[in-house]
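The data layer described in this paper is built around a simple, fixed record for each protein. We quote a single record here, exactly as it is kept in our systems:
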Amino acid sequence: MNRFSFASLAILAAFAAPLVAQQTLTIDANAPAKPFPHFWEQTFGSGRAVLSLREEYRDDLRAVHAATGFQSVRFHGIFNDEVGLYDPDRRVINFAQTLGQEGEAVGKNSIYNFSYVDQIYDGLLANGVRPYVEMSFMPAKMTSDPKQIQAFWYRPNVAPPADYAKWDAMIQAFAKHLVERYGIDEVSTWKFEVWNEPNLDFWMGAPKQPTYFELYDHTARALKSVSPRIQVGGPATAQAAWVTPFLEHIKESGAPVDFVSTHVYGNDSAKDVFGTTENIPRDQMVYRSVKKVHDEIAASAFPKLPLIFSEYNASYANEPNITDSPYMAAWLPNTIRQCDGLISNMAMWDFSDVFEEQGVVRTPFYGGFGLMAEREIPKAIFNTYVALHKLGDQRIAVDSDSALATKTSNGLAIALWNYAPPTGEGANYTPENGPDAKPAGPAKEFTLKLEHAGTNVEVLRVDPDHGNVLKAYDAMGRPAWPSREQIAELRKAGAMAPAEHMKLKNGELHLSVPAHGMAVVLVSK
């Protein structure tokens, strides 16, 4: 073999070898920092209102609250008939008068019944979580069209009210009851959001936008008539839509508004969100949408209004290789990095797979939106939130698209990740095409040069081999209905991996992070 052949083989071998990305980051614990509020863990979405009465829902709520300290939860359907709030044909027997006793029965002849409303909100508050009140959907005996039923399994009515006087009266009674029960000091901390995604099939007023604006005006004014301290906002649209026309309408109508809310998902299309034909990757879509709406508010007559994305996730579909997998361990911190400074609150949809929009759950890992899978099994995304909760509330600038550096009361907390596009694209996840079947990409090698930071180091990892319950589920053969013993095994496998304890050497630390992986480095003095 001649020298040329040897050289050619060497070149081919170099190209065949897996590439390894390397980053060296210098971080000074005494460097200037800016506020870094944990806007990604203030609010979570959940399945519809009545599901909050289930014990498994409350168990998941407690687990996520313990991990994140989140403040509020948003769900659809507080006005659904299954909650029982509105029934004009209801008559309450006055037992006291029947027995000849003095007094009047509470709720006598009332068309409103707050029994389940109270149980729902009492249950949240008892667990340290406030309601984020989505005002939806239409009671059957108030609707203008009984046939306007949305496709969700629980079939909500999504038509406008037949009589806005009755809608206004219900909203006033609802708000008055909440204030009387919980006090205005408490209720004034809640957000009241008018409807859900009126630009999609959740609102069947025609034409959609002006009829939604009519609904908003009536609802906002009815709430404020009870107390001007109640916070109300909208338009709660999908695909980051309608914000500019909504604020233009508010300026013209004079209806009250305290915040702007909208939604987006990582796999929304550029056509739907921006009206373009560009291909926006999943790791950029949420940031691009947040920036768009942030700029629209800044250019409006209300430039100081807080911005809330009251729904977002990497996928609006059931894609197990996305929302059930360690892919989220890199997607989430990267999204946080990009959106910092542009938004006041981002509510992940959602915290639990106690969730029935597509019907009763058929298997623990079907691409549900939750941090917790069915039967209280933590996913990789749950552990991602556990680790990111450790970040401090002061952010230090660092020249990297794969790192967040923060100050804590006792040193530094640094998130490092290795983002790669999802493998096994689509909803048909199997061990053969899922993220554990083959590496999603090369590892990323980080060298941290830390100054004034102490020497004790703990590292929390979430990646295909740490805090990833799918690895154990695949080893079981992915049973649709795991046995009780398997459920216990999955809960254990889904737990956060124990922290790794290290020491800095000459102020440096070397870490390797696999694709679809994140490490949070805690450095203490």
